[in-house]
Amino acid sequence: MSTVVVSTIAPSGGTLTVTSNVNATNFNTTSDENLKTDIVTIENAADKVSQLRGVNFTYRESGQYTMGVIAQETQAVIPEVVGEMPNGQLTVNYQAMVGVLIEAIKDLQARVDELENQ
Questions:
Q1: 75 exposed, middle or buried (CB, 10 Å; 0-12, 13-18, 19+)?
Q2: Cα angle value 65/70/22 (rounded, 5°)
């Protein structure tokens, strides 16, 4: 197992590609409201989530068995979370999926509350 230490931050727009496991105590994503424009609540989140497919799979290169989504399928539903590497392979920003999952839970809770109040 190799260890790589990154001691500098890549320039804006830079990419660090790792084809093995990354272990860390925490990952923080810049999310300050002051850095954002065009903020809109995600609509029809539950419908979007219901179109996603969670899968178990094995990575061909490493043999690691894990779970997640298929980028091509996800791109058809929420293209904002799918990127493309220079070699054409697709990536999924799983952190970006949190927003749609939060709104889907809220949508479903509203439906439950409505049914309970009938």
A1: middle
A2: 50
Q: Looking at the domain assignment, is residue 42 inside a domain? A: yes
| pLDDT tens per residue across span 8-42 | 655 666 777 777 777 777 888 889 999 999 999 99
Q: Single out the residue of 104, 83, 103 nearest to residue 93, CA to CA.
A: 83
Is 6 part of any domain? no
CATH classification at residue 69: 1.10.10.10
Distance, in Å, from the CA atom of 6 to the CA atom of 18, rounded to the nearest integer, reads 12
Tell me if residue 50 falls in helix, strand or coil: helix
